[in-house]
Each structure stands twice: as structure tokens, then as C-alpha cells.
Design a protein that fits this description.
CATH topology of the largest domain: Spore Coat Polysaccharide Biosynthesis Protein SpsA, Chain A
Number of helices: 16
Helix content: 40-55%
Order of helices and strands: HHEHHEHEEHEEHEHEEHHHEEHEHHHH
């Protein structure tokens, strides 16, 4: 995510090593990176209640899955199941939610499958969100899951939470299509917020996303709204910008915790159904292999989308929004969730590699969601953020190097931060690491110079 930034840092510090003759004492090196790490770790403890979720929430129960644990994906049956739901919305609504009555204009859908340990961390955070009673919450669990959430939860009929356990394993492609069509076609909500199972949300995340959806309605280029998936807090002043949102390229960031208005869905609905009809009946796990990959690529070309574009339903959704004029998204400056999906649907990394990429923790303060504002509309504000980036880097930089940080590194860091692709916690740790290697080089440790020159920082 921040390889370009990291490459520049390595080249710059190498230049510092070989151009400066001042001898910096290693006694000047403070332990700074750990403070940044500690600030951003462990912030979910107050949200979670342990391994058991009994009694946490209530819901209206709709048991659709009549199969036992361990059921394998059957694409043909899954397609028939959804086709049957989509042919009559009124009947589908009765089948899916029974006599449940809508109580809000925005639906929150928690999507999950069978990872009990992950769900036990993430679902309580959603249900204990501030103002959760303002939303209708749907738990949509893929069929074939060996884990039944009702083993941990009890949902009285009086609640505004609906648990839908599908008859078949839809896999991610069909499941995401179901969630969108269910929310807008079947249930006729005004807005949708999606939380995937491998994300632990901040207590105010739902309120903030709902506010962002409302702000997006009158913005002709804003399609979706999302929580930034990288932790930039080491470079930002949360006293000023915790409520700030930012316009970014629509393709920036993952679709892990996000939302959008019904008008955006309606603008791309036909495209989404074309994608649905292309993938249904196929094993979606094989979308990168023929024949399914060839069919999706042909669909991309027919729509005028990049022929070599990504084949996922998420990216097809983004392409469709862009083609409809929604080329940007609203994104938070601070991360209001903690990703825990290193074994998730998107990534297959070790835990260490995953957190090195995305960082740990989330914003651990409090905000006023209704105060959310667009920082990109104020040039003075952007200049102030950039000045803050320079100041944050220099606080660490000047502990190691004889001069202030080069402006090109400030520019690179600022742009990466504003685009939501900079892991700030890890980047600040890299600055410290580079500084320590620079000091070692001035004391004649050739082995460390050689290691740094090889890019291992």
C-alpha cells in the first residue's frame, strides 16, 4: 500500500548517509515508534464482551437453511434459490423477514459465513454501536455454514434485528448481489451500510456512515462512502480532523465497511444484474480461471470497462458507478474500524504480514457524527493538514538526522495520506528504523548500512 512512499524514504536516507559527515550520537535516539504503536493497538477491548454473545441482541428470526453443517457450495442450486427470490419481491420479503416491519430508512447488513471466532469479535461491536436503534440490522449468513449464530445469540421477536441464514452457500459474488437487491428492491430502503464479518467497527461508525450517505446525496460525483482502511493517525491531528471526510478516487481503498444511497444503486442496477447473470451457476472461487474468467472479461469489454480490470464484484460495482458519473467516494481520514481479516475473503496472509500492511487498531476517541465535514472544500484546511504532516515527521526525523525532512518526502506522505493508501503507524516506525540505521552508519557499522541499502528496513 505504501511501497512508493517506502522506496522514496530508502533513497532519501541513503542520500543522507553518504552526503552528511556529522556524527550523530546514538544516545539521542528515543523510543518513539512504540508510542505510535501503543496508541493504535487494543482499542477494541472495550467493545467486546468475550467469547459468548448470549443475550447481547434481539432479532426477528427467519431460519432458511435446512441443510446440515459442512454443506459444499452448489452454484446451480444457489442460483435457482436467488432467481426464485428475485422474481417476486413481495413473496421474497415475506419469506426472508416474515412480518418484520421497517423502522428506519437505512439498513445495516452484517455479512458473514462460518468463522465463529471472527464473528464473535465483530458482530457484538455492530450490535452495541451508538444509536443502533436508529437502524434496521440484518445478519446475512451464507448457507452451508457449520456455525449457527443462534448458538451464541438469542433474538426475541420484538427486536429490529433480522437473522437470515440462507439455504445455500452463495459465495461472495452472489452474496453481495443479494445484499444490494434485498435492501433496495425487496425492502425498499433509502440507504445501505455493509459490514463484513472480519471488521470490528468503532461505536460511532454506523452513525458516521449514515451521515456521510446523507451528505453524498447532493454531490453528483460521490458514489459510495467508506471508512478508510489504513491507519493514518500518526500524521493527523485528531483534535481537528477526526470528523473530517475526504473526496478520493472511487477505486481507492477496499469495500469492507461502506455504504451508499438508493439512487446510486438504481443508477447501476442493470449492470449489477448483468454481472449476477454472468457469474450465477459458476463456482465463484474460480473467477480467475476459464470459463468464468473469460465470461467476466467479455462482460467488462461489453460495458467499456478496462479489459484487464479486476474480476471481482466489488470492482465491477466501482466500474459501474464510475461509468454512471460517480467517480469519487467520501472516505474518512481516520479509521473507524479494525480489520481482523488476515484469513478473510480478501487476503490470505500471515497475521504479521496483514498487520504490517494495514496496521492495528482504530481511532479510539469520540466524535460528533453530525459534524462530519468535507476537508477538500477548504484549501486552508489542506495546507494545515500538510503542515501537520511535516511537523509529525520532523518530530521523529530531527532525532536522527542533522537537517529537517526533505519537502519531497512531505509531499509524498501528504498525497498518500489524502488518498487513503498510507499505513501511518508503520510508516512512522519506518522513519525511526531508517534513522537508527543512519546513526549506526555514522558510527561505522557497515553491516547495518548494507542491510539498509538492500531495502530491508
Amino acid at each position: 500500500m505504501y511501497k512508493g512512499w517506502l522506496t522514496f524514504l530508502m533513497l532519501w536516507v541513503l542520500g543522507e548517509i553518504f552526503s552528511h559527515t556529522a556524527n550523530a550520537s546514538s544516545s539521542q535516539v528515543p523510543v518513539l515508534a512504540s508510542r505510535f504503536q501503543q496508541r493504535n493497538r487494543g482499542s477494541t477491548v472495550s467493545i467486546l464482551a468475550g467469547n459468548s454473545m448470549k443475550g447481547v441482541a434481539q432479532r426477528s428470526r427467519r431460519q432458511l437453511d435446512d441443510s446440515g453443517p459442512g454443506q459444499q457450495a452448489n452454484p446451480v442450486q444457489a442460483a435457482a434459490y436467488l432467481d426464485d427470490l428475485f422474481k417476486d419481491y413481495a413473496t421474497a420479503r415475506k419469506q426472508l423477514v416474515g412480518s418484520f416491519n421497517k423502522r428506519s430508512r437505512i439498513a445495516v447488513v452484517f455479512m458473514c459465513f462460518n468463522r465463529a471466532g471472527v464473528i464473535r469479535q465483530s458482530l457484538p461491536a455492530v450490535m452495541r454501536s451508538d444509536g443502533v436503534e436508529q437502524f434496521d440490522l440484518f445478519i446475512s449468513q451464507d448457507g452451508g455454514a457449520g456455525y449457527n449464530i443462534e448458538k451464541d445469540l438469542h433474538f426475541p421477536e420484538s427486536s429490529s434485528i433480522v437473522y437470515i441464514r440462507h439455504k445455500f452457500n452463495l459465495c461472495t459474488g452472489l452474496h453481495h448481489h443479494f445484499v444490494k437487491s434485498f435492501t433496495f428492491d425487496i425492502m425498499d430502503y433509502d440507504g445501505l451500510i455493509i459490514v463484513e464479518e472480519d471488521n470490528v467497527v468503532h461505536p460511532q461508525a454506523l452513525q458516521l456512515l449514515a451521515r456521510m450517505i446523507d451528505l453524498s446525496i447532493e454531490q453528483p460525483e460521490i458514489g459510495i462512502v467508506s471508512l478508510v482502511d489504513m491507519d493514518n493517525s500518526a500524521f493527523l491531528d485528531d483534535r481537528k480532523y477526526a470528523e473530517g471526510i475526504n473526496r478520493v478516487n472511487g477505486t481507492m481503498g477496499h469495500l469492507w465497511v461502506y455504504g451508499f444511497h438508493k439512487s446510486r444503486y438504481e443508477a447501476v442496477r442493470s449492470n449489477l444484474y448483468d454481472y449476477y447473470n454472468t457469474i450465477k451457476g459458476h463456482d465463484y472461487g474460480m473467477k480467475h480461471e476459464p470459463p468464468l474468467s473469460d465470461k467476466i472479461k467479455a462482460l467488462l469489454v461489453s460495458k467499456g470497462f478496462p479489459a484487464d480490470g479486476e474480476l471481482s464484484q466489488d470492482r465491477f460495482f466501482i466500474y459501474s458507478l464510475e461509468n454512471a458519473g460517480y467517480r469519487q467516494r467520501y472516505q474518512t481520514l481516520f479509521r473507524f474500524f479494525e480489520p481482523i481479516g488476515y484469513l478473510g475473503l480478501h487476503h490470505r496472509h500471515t497475521e504479521t504480514a496483514f498487520f504490517n500492511m494495514f496496521g492495528r487498531g482504530m481511532f479510539n476517541g469520540r466524535i460528533k457524527p453530525q459534524a462530519a465535514f468535507d476537508v477538500t472544500k477548504d484549501t486552508t484546511m489542506l495546507l494545515d493538514i500538510k503542515a501537520g504532516v511535516r511537523d509529525h515527521i520532523n518530530r521523529v526525523w530531527l532525532q536522527y538526522f542533522p537537517g529537517k525532512v526533505h519537502e519531497e518526502l512531505v509531499n509524498n506522505t501528504f498525497v498518500s495520506l489524502m488518498e487513503g493508501r498510507l499505513n501511518g503507524v508503520e510508516a512512522m516506525a519506518d522513519i525511526k528504523s531508517a534513522g537508527m540505521k543512519y546513526i549506526a552508519s555514522k558510527t561505522g557499522n557497515k553491516l547495518i548500512i548494507a542491510t539498509f541499502a538492500g531495502g530491508n528496513i
